[in-house]
Amino acid sequence: MAHTTSSCRRTVFGLMAFCLVMLHGAVAAQTIRFAPEKDYAPFVSAGPAGQVQGLSIDVLDILKPRLGANVQVLPADNLANILQAARRGEVDLISSLRPTPERAEFLAFTEPYVKVPAVLVVKQGPIPPTLKDLADRPVAVGKGYAVESFVRTNYPLIRWVAVSDDVAALQALLRGDVDGVVADVASVSDATRHSGIRGVQVVESLPFEYELSFAYRKELAALGDALNAGLKDITPATRQALLRRWIDTETLTYEDPRLTWVRKLAMVLSVLALVMVGVWRLRAKRSSDRAADGL
């Protein structure tokens, strides 16, 4: 009898322990650990009071009701540290990322929710250099950013200098530590408007586009499905409103300053063509009138 009672007690305690473990797992599954970047404005950054803000945060707020879980916002950090934490399994969700083969080893990605081009930025001057002109010279690029591996592969003659973020890169440009910066045009626009960056200009568009997505741990397929479903439901009007709030959308339509004269010349030629057509029509009418008078 005592043996039976002891066995029952062990069974009850085992069931209780199992239930506690399952309960802990359920609570953990209902918490999504989101790691925001502290310095990737206007997409995501830490504000003056430490609060995270940006276009990607607004998109995430729209998606939260679809996730079926609480979103725990981790302390803002730089991208390199966030990716290391994600590789260790300490982060569930990251915003504002472009898929790369290296990141795909431990992360999965949603469809992109915003696209912006990468550009070369230099100090203002009468004859700005292109990347070809900067061979063997230092050019800054964000450390761990998707564009870093692209430029190192496609522009090997340049001395690439990896920096923590785009603002730090632009500050290095103004100090003269580097001769150029490669960054996305939206971040450059934000830095010139809000970070006191002056005296720089965009001179070249690179064949690289930031297609920014949400990234999540590969094990969390259901989270990815929920994110993608929510992104599909965001209307074009809402997307445009978010862009207008955070990004000077005119900067997204890139025009190489060295080709501005071509556009102006084309406009002048178009006006001249219209004038010549008008003159020809006027002469034709006068000739027709004289011919009629002769009759």
Automatic annotation (TrEMBL):
SUPFAM superfamilies: Periplasmic binding protein-like II. Pfam families: SBP_bac_3 (PF00497). It comes from the Bacteria. Residues 31-250 form the Solute-binding protein family 3/N-terminal domain. Residues 1-28 form the signal peptide. The chain crosses the membrane at residues 261-280. The keyword Ribosomal protein does not apply. InterPro entries: Solute-binding_3/MltF_N. Keywords: Membrane, Signal, Transmembrane, Transmembrane helix. Coiled coil: none annotated. This is Transporter substrate-binding domain-containing protein. It comes from Rhodoferax mekongensis.
